[in-house]
């Protein structure tokens, strides 16, 4: 491969985990390499040439057969803005009798500083075992002048072994050139040739090229193939993106593929691998899949030979190591190849596709996929069990049939073993366990047997009926008021179990535990792990079970004042359906591995919390997936379970919106809340009887009800007390109920009891903003202004946007004699408040300004309501600023019969304040008394009027 960008993110989770070995670097050209070549025409070049290539490179003129290509200014002008343009990517291949030459010329243009690095770095990859590199051009064009860099070139020949992390040594080298003095506006041009072909293809020409570049948009991509007319070379290129022409002259056929204005390659981790195929140009001299199968039979011809004594001896040992049952012998042999022959590939030259001798693999105890498969097949045949290597693509999988018949269509090899109806087994999957049926390779789409009698691709077993993940969450309450425990158990099977084993081998157990805990915390945000994660093999299966135990602090929260609710999510199902984003897509979206995913969550309570048993199933049967959910509720428990069956591995672009809308509709089936009442059924019945008795007493006149608010407050107090007595309230919900009780007690004038309720709430939850806010109001009502300021300040610190504590602090400053501070608070309130809030703040600002000796009408003028029909208490504001009368204010207060008492209380209080500021103490006392006589204890003005009367009496 000449360029090193790969799209490993498009591989399956199995491949990402490193469980599937790579096939060969030549085949890896299929995985994006920005134009990787894997081509051959004839037998190996003479030894002298191979040696010359292995020495490094030469500098030579451009070959005479190369056809020059001029830059097209018209095409360049159409390119979208980008830091770098690829003005030309010209590839020309000449197939000679016993050799082949690839010529490549690339022209890059630097438009912005961000393009300098990509323009100045040149890397050419080649295999010195059969290729020789020749440099032809290395130039910079600046303002029409040519700067020849070839004489002063600095070329480093690197043996980078970019596949070493995948346990593969390929021997490929990289000619690395870093140009100096490249500037914005420069054009960088270079050209080179690679002579030689991989002998493994037996003289057949195969090549796969991408016609987009990750460096930038490309004005022109051209591939010119010169081949003798007798060579039958097939071509596949998307006609919507490529123009193809062919001519014949003097025994040569010239095939030219062009693409103009190719966009810059944009990686999308969520598209199927086949999405990139239209950007490829494929060549193959193989006639059909039967031709490739015959080639594969020859490449793996070593398995048809008589096994060596060492292979025979090992086969005999395996056969005698246990039961004589063929399936058991296959399992033992597979275990040996998977676990005792480590994965490591030496894929130089022909070894890219041709396996090593089984005797050699057995002796060295390492090999890549083709080596291990060959050893597995040879060991089985020595035991009289038939097996055949099968070529597969872990990248394209079910889309491999979109490739031209060629060895390049495949990147992996496994074995079809003729037991139990035929099993596909993979010798590289060292982390498999369990019986053979659970170790079958599934979901690979199509395969090609390396059998001379094979004529076509064969459909391989899919994973639709395979269970991949089964998760079970148990949320257990010893007492409803206490934090529950969560026991999360996940069982991973097949490919997913192997991926987990790989993760456990590749990183510390603590890191794996951290990753699993993070997934649980996504759905239970406060979860705390209280026992080390336990990971166990499921005996007799290719499965791993993970068990974790968490404490769920403050799990239940109070909702609507009546229910305790806790969140849950069915993560193992949700993860497979979760969308990368909600925006419409113009590309298909890749889904997960076909098969079954299950998740259930069960809540277990120590008492009956539900009124009846309930069972509610739901089923969605679609083309892409099936979803089945069941809510199964008992009186003391609830279980929500879900099963997802993925039937397709992608969603086409045209189906995206419908798919997204469907998931939005189905999502509530996969996450939600479980809720229990704050009181028992018996408490509920007792409370209802108490309310009916109070209602009957009021109806008979035996008791005199107060205002509607006070009546409601009394009913709420009974309800709140039932909640507190019921014993179901956890710490924070209990604090919330105590705060609510304190508020209702304040409404009823039970100031002392309210004070204790708020304090009890803070004892449970010191950061409860509502408790501090309640205490601040309560302190104000009791005349404790410093306490009111302290608690109001703490409430604002915890909840800065709450206006209530700021009002309370303003009132407390006013009564404490800190009038300046009161004014500042009111001005802050008036910055951005509703019309009604502005009227109340304006009234208080009027009082504060008068107390400070200012012009109240002038100061409050900017804050008058802007609404065309301002609501109450605007009539009081008008009265204060002289634009309204007392009669108008009284009429406005009485206009709404339900609100009349409260509005009159407010009006009387503010009138009393006006008289007090005017020095009319007796008149003020009369207005304050009128405010108290309204008996609307729930109004702040009522309590403040009481406070004023008490202060007057004390003077």
UniProtKB/TrEMBL annotation:
Residues 100-248 form the DUF3857 domain. It comes from the Bacteria. InterPro entries: DUF3857, Papain-like_cys_pep_sf, TPR-like_helical_dom_sf, TPR_rpt, Transglutaminase-like. Residues 1-38 form the signal peptide. Keywords: Signal. The keyword Signal applies. Residues 320-393 form the Transglutaminase-like domain. Gene3D superfamilies: 2.60.40.3140, 3.10.620.30, Tetratricopeptide repeat domain. This is DUF3857 domain-containing protein. The lineage of its organism: Bacteria, Pseudomonadati, Pseudomonadota, Betaproteobacteria, Burkholderiales.
């Amino acid at each position: 491969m000449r360029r090193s960008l790969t799209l490993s993110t498009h591989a399956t989770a199995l491949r990402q985990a490193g469980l599937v070995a790579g096939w060969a670097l030549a085949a890896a050209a299929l995985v994006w390499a920005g134009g990787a070549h894997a081509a051959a025409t004839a037998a190996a070049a003479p030894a002298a040439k191979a040696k010359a290539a292995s020495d490094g490179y030469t500098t030579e003129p451009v070959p005479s057969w190369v056809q020059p290509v001029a830059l097209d200014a018209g095409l360049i002008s159409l390119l979208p803005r980008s830091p770098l343009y690829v003005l030309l990517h010209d590839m020309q291949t000449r197939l000679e009798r016993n050799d082949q030459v690839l010529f490549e010329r690339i022209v890059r243009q630097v438009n912005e500083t961000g393009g300098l690095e990509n323009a100045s770095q040149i890397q050419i990859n080649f295999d010195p075992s059969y290729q020789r590199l020749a440099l032809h051009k290395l130039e910079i064009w600046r303002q029409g002048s040519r700067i020849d860099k070839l004489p002063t070139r600095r070329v480093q020949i690197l043996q980078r072994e970019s596949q070493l992390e995948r346990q593969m040594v390929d021997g490929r080298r990289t000619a690395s050139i870093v140009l100096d003095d490249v500037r914005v506006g420069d054009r960088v041009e270079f050209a080179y040739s690679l002579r030689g072909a991989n002998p493994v293809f037996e003289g057949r020409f195969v090549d796969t090229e991408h016609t987009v570049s990750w460096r930038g948009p490309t004005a022109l991509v051209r591939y010119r193939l010169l081949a003798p007319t007798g060579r039958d070379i097939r071509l596949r290129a998307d006609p919507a993106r490529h123009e193809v022409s062919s001519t014949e002259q003097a025994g040569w056929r010239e095939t030219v593929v062009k693409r103009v204005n190719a966009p810059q390659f944009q990686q999308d981790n969520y598209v199927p691998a086949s999405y990139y195929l239209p950007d490829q140009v494929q060549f193959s001299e193989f006639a059909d899949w039967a031709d490739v199968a015959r080639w594969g039979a020859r490449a793996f011809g070593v398995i048809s030979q008589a096994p060596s004594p060492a292979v025979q001896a090992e086969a005999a040992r395996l056969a005698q190591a246990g039961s004589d049952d063929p399936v058991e012998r296959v399992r033992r042999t597979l275990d040996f190849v998977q676990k005792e022959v480590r994965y490591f590939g030496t894929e130089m030259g022909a070894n890219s596709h041709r396996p090593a001798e089984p005797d050699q693999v057995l002796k060295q105890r390492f090999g890549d996929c083709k080596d291990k498969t060959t050893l597995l097949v040879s060991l089985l045949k020595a035991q009289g069990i038939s097996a055949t290597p099968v070529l597969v693509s872990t990248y394209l999988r079910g889309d491999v049939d979109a490739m031209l018949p060629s060895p390049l269509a495949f990147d992996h090899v496994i074995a079809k073993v003729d037991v139990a109806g035929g099993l596909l087994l993979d010798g590289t999957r060292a982390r498999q366990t369990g019986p053979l049926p659970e170790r079958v390779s599934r979901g690979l789409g199509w395969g090609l047997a390396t059998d001379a009698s094979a004529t076509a691709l064969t459909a391989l077993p899919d994973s639709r009926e395979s269970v991949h993940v089964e998760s079970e969450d148990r949320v257990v309450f010893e007492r409803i008021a206490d934090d529950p425990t969560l026991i999360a158990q996940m069982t991973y099977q097949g490919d997913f179990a192997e991926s987990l084993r790989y993760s456990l081998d590749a990183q510390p157990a603590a890191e794996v535990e951290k990753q699993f805990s993070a997934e649980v915390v996504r759905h239970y945000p406060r979860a705390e792990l209280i026992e080390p994660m336990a990971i166990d093999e499921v005996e007799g299966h290719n499965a791993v079970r993970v068990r974790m135990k968490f404490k769920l602090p403050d799990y239940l929260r109070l909702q609507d004042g009546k229910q305790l609710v806790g969140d849950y999510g069915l993560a193992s199902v949700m993860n497979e359906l979760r969308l990368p984003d909600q925006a419409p897509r113009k590309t298909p979206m890749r889904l997960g591995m076909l098969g079954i995913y299950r998740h259930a969550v069960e809540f277990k309570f120590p008492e009956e919390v539900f009124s009846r048993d309930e069972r509610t199933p739901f089923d969605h049967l679609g083309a892409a997936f099936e979803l089945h959910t069941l809510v199964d509720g008992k009186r003391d428990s609830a279980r929500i379970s879900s099963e997802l069956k993925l039937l397709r591995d992608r969603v086409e672009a045209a189906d995206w919106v419908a798919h997204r809308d469907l998931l939005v509709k189905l999502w509530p089936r996969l996450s939600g809340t479980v809720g229990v009442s704050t009181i028992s059924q018996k408490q509920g019945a007792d409370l209802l009887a108490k309310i009916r008795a109070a209602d009957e007493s009021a109806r008979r006149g035996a008791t005199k009800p107060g205002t509607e608010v006070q009546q409601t407050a009394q009913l709420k107090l009974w309800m709140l007390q039932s909640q507190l007595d019921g014993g179901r309230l956890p710490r924070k919900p209990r604090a919330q109920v105590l705060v609510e009780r304190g508020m209702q007690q304040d409404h009823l004038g039970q100031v002392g009891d309210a004070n204790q309720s708020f304090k009890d709430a803070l004892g449970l939850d010191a950061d409860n903003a509502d408790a501090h806010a309640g205490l601040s109001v309560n302190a104000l009502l009791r005349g404790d202004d410093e306490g009111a300021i302290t608690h109001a300040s703490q409430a604002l610190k915890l909840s800065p946007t709450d206006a209530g504590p700021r009002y309370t602090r303003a009132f407390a400053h006013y009564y404490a004699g800190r009038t300046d501070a009161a004014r500042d608070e009111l001005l802050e309130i008036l910055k951005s408040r509703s019309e009604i809030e502005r009227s109340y703040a304006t009234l208080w600002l009027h009082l504060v300004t008068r107390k400070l000796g200012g012009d109240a009408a002038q100061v409050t003028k900017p804050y008058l309501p802007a609404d065309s029909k301002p609501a109450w208490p605007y009539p009081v504001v008008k009265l204060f600023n002289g634009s309204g009368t007392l009669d108008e204010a009284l009429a406005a207060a009485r206009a709404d019969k339900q609100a009349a008492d409260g509005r009159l209380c407010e009006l009387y209080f503010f009138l009393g304040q006006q008289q007090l500021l005017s020095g009319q103490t007796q008149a003020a006392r009369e207005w304050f008394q009128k405010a108290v006589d309204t008996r609307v204890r729930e109004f702040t003005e009522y309590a403040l009027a009481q406070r004023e009367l008490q202060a007057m009496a004390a003077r």
